[in-house]
Specification:
mainly alpha
Length: 75
């Protein structure tokens, strides 16, 4: 199911996903949330919400994505 973050349901889902980014504990949890909204990811908004997370930051999230992608290619 694809949500458009410009319509009401998609915007509510997107806002909820962004709020969850402030509390997740692992990069995998963060990416699971981002992939679940199934829409274009606004990196600036993701960075903003991760600034409130005491455990994760955007660099950790980027590094996790890069390492996961290379593991998938190798595996």
């Amino acid at each position: 199911m694809m949500f458009n973050k410009n319509n009401t349901n998609g915007k509510e889902l997107w806002n909820l996903a962004m709020e969850f980014l402030e509390t997740v504990k692992t990069p995998k949890e963060a990416w699971d949330i981002l992939y679940s909204v199934n829409t274009d990811i606004d990196n600036r908004e993701v960075m903003f919400h991760l600034d409130f997370n005491p455990i994760l930051n955007y660099t950790i999230l980027e590094n996790y994505e890069t390492s996961s992608a290379s593991e998938l290619r190798e595996g």
